[in-house]
Amino acid sequence: MSAGRLHFVVGRLAQVFPVLAALLLIVVLLQQMMPGDPARVIAGPRATAEQVVQVRHELGLDRPIFEQFGRHVSNLLQGDLGTSNRTGIPITTIVGDRIGVTVWLLFGGLLVSTLLAMPAALLMALRPRSRGARICSRALTIIINCPPFWVGLMLASVLALGTGWLPVGGFGVDFGDRVRSMILPSLTIGLAVMPLLARSAAASLSQVLTADHVTTARSLGVSGWPLVRRHLLRNALPPAITLLAIQAAALLFGAVIVEQTFGLPGLGAEMITAASQRDFPVVQALTLIFGLAIIGINLLADLAVALLDPRTTWR
Amino acid sequence: MTSHPLLEVDGLRVAIRRQDTALTVLDGVSFAVGASQCLGIVGESGCGKSLTLRAAMGLLPPGIERTGGKIRLSLQPGAAPSEVQAGQVAGRGLAMVFQDSHASLDPTMRVGTFIAETVRRRGGTSRSDARRQAVELLASVGVPDPKVRFNAYPHELSGGMRQRVAIALALATDPRVLLCDEPTTALDVTLQAQILRLLNTARTERGLGMIFVSHDIAVIRQIADVVAVMYAGQIIEIGTVSDVLDRPRHPYARALIDAVPSIDGPVGPFRSVPGSPPDPIDYGSACRFLDRCGHRDTACEGVVNGIDGREAGHRSACVHNGTLAHGLEAT
């Protein structure tokens, strides 16, 4: 690895820390900004004013904000996410039970969107005037305008209810069941993310296609698949990967909706339940986890781009 | 020069395709290049110099098509040139060096890897052999420390070094004819001289045919044997370097050469050719330089074709060809 790229990797990793600090601060402040008083919710509707004050004191909510922040961070560093207001179960247990589903879903969505977007992008960039490319382009316009929850319901009613091939919802017990139960949710998420990915990859490919260095490669007799693989994709991928990372937030949001639609016991569904029941510690912990996921995905994407493009340096 | 030319371009026509119409931008361009011979093509921007090279390679940009003419290439040493299809000869007999070495090398590939892959595409070379040949090629184009530079990316090299790499890449295909599209335009004068010397060495050592497109007449004088002057998609004058550059016969060639400021000539305002070339949509059968020419008369409005550059000798497309020559030299 050249000095410039090494510098980039170190610099990019260092950049994570201020972002992490900001995320933590927001998560703690979130509690202050939320409507409703968590102490009152926990103490119950019949609690006296003294009892509410007592609960607030036990939760540390009457402490100055910076002290709360410090305590939160030190708890986190010890691997303690707190306990649920509602059930008293440690949040690490809840997350441990449910994170698998969400990770499955995200990877499934990523896989489906990549598998659908890449051929479409290649077709639209390499044969822009073909019938296939025109159909593709119109289909993308239609798909991008379909909200994920509706797509999910339609897929469920056609592919699951209509034929009985696939489960309508739930998360199976053994591996085969799980794969089957992931197909429709992955398809739903993948379809939500895929149009933008295909469009941007196609744009980036067709730009590279007219680049002088591609003409050079062709003048040396490179053509067909070697030209695409060796000279087009490597140059066209970085923008697409960056866009995919920016889409990570949309992907996670999609996961929240899709888990709800298909009754999957994942983090997104838990987030909705917790928010509707004012289970603040859970909302806080999940916000933190989603935030970390987005930071992590963006970090990975930037490192992948640095790996693909030797010109990357830290500015 | 051998009896057979290496490359023969015969009546090349190229058109820009619009919905239903085709706009002809290269109109019957013909020339031939022999072994170790360098044909220089000069002309102002937009006259079709680069397009001629692209068409010969079969690398026309989308929307532009070859609509006529034949390309013949001698594929074996000593063989007579035989007709080839567009796109068949890129990297297999013809190779090209481009103007902008920064944009024309793949930024994601190590230069040595790129050269070695190009060597291997010819077939019958092992990976390690191709690697060794790539290092040799880098050394032969004057890249210092070729073993180290093998692993460099294009952006890590200077402009002159990149152009040397581009030449090594072209030579890696073992071409019969090397097409040079203003390869020295982006370089300073010292580097320009070095690259010209390098190309000349490659030409004589390998018996390469060469076509060198430039709008720099001083560069053409250094490298070319034969010069073709292009105007509005036609060759309008061709001949040896001294014939065309010292005794031009076509009023346009004369004006173009006069526009070059001379270091020992009289000091005065720069001379330029008044007006601008016609739009391809206005190309007619008459002389295309008509509107800008100081020597026009009714004969110029008849059919005036470009000339066939395959024939030897100093010839011009001007209808006043011989008669005007004296008058032109006096100006």
TrEMBL record, chain A:
Q: How does it sit in the membrane?
A: Multi-pass membrane protein
Positions of transmembrane segments = 12-30, 103-126, 138-162, 182-198, 236-258, 285-308
List locations, semicolon-separated: Cell membrane
Tell me, what is an example of a GO biological process annotation in this record?
A: transmembrane transport
Keyword Protein biosynthesis appears in the UniProt entry = no
Domain spans labelled ABC transmembrane type-1: 99-301
Family that this chain belongs to: Belongs to the binding-protein-dependent transport system permease family.
Query: What protein name does the entry list?
Result: Peptide/nickel transport system permease protein/glutathione transport system permease protein
Organism the protein comes from:
Sinosporangium album
Automatic annotation (TrEMBL), chain B:
Keyword Transport in record: yes
- Supply the InterPro entries for this chain: AAA+_ATPase, ABC_Ni/Peptide_Import, ABC_transporter-like_ATP-bd, ABC_transporter-like_CS, Oligopep_ABC_C, P-loop_NTPase
Q: Which domain of life is it from?
A: Bacteria
Q: Where is the ABC transporter domain?
A: 7-257
Q: Name one GO cellular component term.
A: plasma membrane
Topology of this chain in the membrane: Peripheral membrane protein
Q: Which PROSITE patterns match?
A: ABC_TRANSPORTER_1, ABC_TRANSPORTER_2
Where would you find this protein in the cell? Cell membrane
Per the record, the GO terms for biological process are: peptide transport
The record ties this protein, via Gene3D superfamilies, to: P-loop containing nucleotide triphosphate hydrolases
A Pfam family that the UniProt record links to this protein:
ABC_tran
Molecular-function annotations in GO: ATP binding; ATP hydrolysis activity
**The keyword Nuclease belongs to this UniProt entry's keyword annotation:** no
The UniProt similarity line reads: Belongs to the ABC transporter superfamily.
Name it: Peptide/nickel transport system ATP-binding protein
Classification from the root reads: Bacteria, Bacillati, Actinomycetota, Actinomycetes, Streptosporangiales
